Amino acid sequence: MSLEVSHQLVPTLQAKVTPKQIVANRILAMSSVELQQAIADELDENPALELIEEVTCPTCGGPTYGGTCPNCSPRTEGPTATELFEPGPGPARDDPDADDPIARAEASFTLQEHLDWNLRALLPTDLHDVATWVIGELDENGLLTRSDEEIAHESGSTPQAVARVRSAMRGLEPIGIGARDVRESLLMQLGHLRETGHDVPRIAEALVADHLQALAERHFREIAHALQVPEDGVVAAWEYVKTNLHPYPASAFVAATHGDAPRPILRPDVLIRIVDGELEVEVVESRRFSLRVAASYASVSAALRSPSWSDQEKEHVREHVGRARFFIDAVRRRRATLQRIAATLVNRQRDYLLLGVRHLVPLTRAEVASEIGVHESTVSRATAEKFVMVPSGEVVPFSHFFTASLSIKDQIRTMIEAENQHHPLSDQQVADELLGQGVAIARRTVAKYRDELRILPARLRHS
After folding, report:
1. How far apart are the first and last CA of the chain?
2. Would you identify the CATH topology of the domain 406-461?
3. Which of helix, strand or coil describes residue 102?
4. Whole-angstrom Cα distance, residue 362 to residue 1?
5. What is the DSSP letter of 56?
6. 19-51, pLDDT tens digit by residue?
7. For the residues 399-409, what does the mean pLDDT come to?
8. Which of 31, 59, 62, 310 has the fewest Cβ atoms nearer than 10 Å?
9. Is beta strand 291-293 parallel, antiparallel or unpaired with respect to 387-389?
10. Which residues pair with 283 in a beta bridge?
11. DSSP per residue over 136-200, as a string?
12. Cβ distance 357 to 410 under 8 Å?
């Protein structure tokens, strides 16, 4: 027996990832903060890259003149939130970073700036001045104690316009902002916690609405008798309220900016707004800055064939101009990819955006990738750790749109909240009711979702 060894070349195709692709993917995956830092670093390292000086206001997106935004400068007709919250002196006039949009974007938000930025994104232009006035009427605790009629009279607006601004404000973080008093602020926070799937004690709203003074005086036995619940249940619910809520929403914002609050203040990467009855998408960074090849390098690059330039000088210009163009292209591609993904989400999740979370439909990243003609990993990179402001004013992660089970969880929570307290629904009964609504789901899946919602089994919910 003989063995023969032969060598045969078989052609194969391999995808080769270039260094440029690696950098482009890294930029695509960056959060807004990371991108701002990357741009700042690149500006320091590459003299051929330039930040366009004719920038827009990073707060409202309007044009600036001499480093000042006419829309966001303090009003002279009345008090502003800046005065109320005393954020401290601004940058000195000789501060080289004073007009740098990257430095300004990285600066800490005051509550006034946070509310102004978000309300301008949510409301039509004709309500921007009204929004500024309403923000200025907030007291030091973030409460709006004056009536819509009083504010309308002093601002030259209408009660309806003030009410519309106030309604938009109440959907913003910190939850409770713009409430009339502490009681209303706490009730707004409890409602938000329930809507987002937290296990809020059943009697929490009743405690806050009807027994706040008695709670402060620790009259737990009297409250328990009035609500016909055990005294330890009242104590537990009160502890929950004290632990999870802020009586003064302005304090919640201050805590959030120092990293102490349970719900951080989030800045969206993408805005989805209703404009003239239609949903409109905007990538936020597109209004903050633009990049270009520095004019001096661009002119030199066009004249490199001249013998007056040495080989070393030519190489320097080619290297830095090429690097700048590639970086600009990568940032633009990131922006375009986010725009296309968000536009697809608007198309596929239109009912959710207009009507609420119960209308969220199952959607995968692969489906979005197929629709816009990219790989699924591209969609994953582009949306990871990024946030969207939806028309309601809520800021949600991109992953929210890809959670197929979210609307089902919402239905389960709604069913259980409406159940007969003496005859709570079993997991199988919930599954049967969902089936009657056209949603086929197994009992064990109901149990899993119920656990994730932190809702007790039926036998433990019996009152």
Report:
1. 86
2. Arc Repressor Mutant, subunit A (1.10.10)
3. helix
4. 63
5. B
6. 777 888 889 888 877 887 888 889 889 998 988
7. 70
8. 310
9. unpaired
10. 270
11. HH--TTS---S-HHHHHHHHT--HHHHHHHHHHHTTSSSTTTT-SSHHHHHHHHHHHHHHTT---
12. yes
Helix (H) or strand (E) holding 429: helix 427-436
- Could you tell me the two tokens for 103? 């430095």
Domain limits, the chain: 53-169, 182-245, 290-402, 406-461
Which of these, 342, 340, 341, lies nearest to 390 by C-alpha position?
Answer: 342
Q: How confident is the model at residue 300 (pLDDT cuts 50, 70, 90)?
A: confident
Contacts 24+ apart (CB under 8 A), 368-371: 368/341, 368/344, 371/344
Inter-residue contact 395 to 389 (CB < 8 Å): yes
pLDDT at 105: 38
Q: Are 97 and 114 in contact (CB under 8 A)?
A: no
Residue 382's Cα: distance from chain center in Å?
Answer: 15
What residue has token string 């970086």? 327
The first and second tokens of residue 178, run together, are: 């713009």
Closest CA to 246 of 175, 310, 313: 175
Pairing of β 49-51 and β 291-293: antiparallel
Question: Global pTM?
Answer: 0.49
**pLDDT reading at 130 higher than 50:** yes
Q: Is 208 helix (H, G, I), strand (E, B) or coil?
A: helix
**Hey, what are 237's tokens?**
């619910």
Tell me the C-alpha to C-alpha distance, in Å, between residue 34 and each of 27, 78, 101, 102, 276: 9, 38, 15, 11, 34
Q: Average model confidence (pLDDT) for the chain?
A: 77
- Token pair in block for residue 367: 């489906």
Q: How far apart are CA 134 and CA 369, in angstroms?
A: 42
How many angstroms separate the CA atoms of 378 and 365, rounded? 9
Instruction: Strands of 297-428 (E only): list them.
Output: 387-389, 395-397
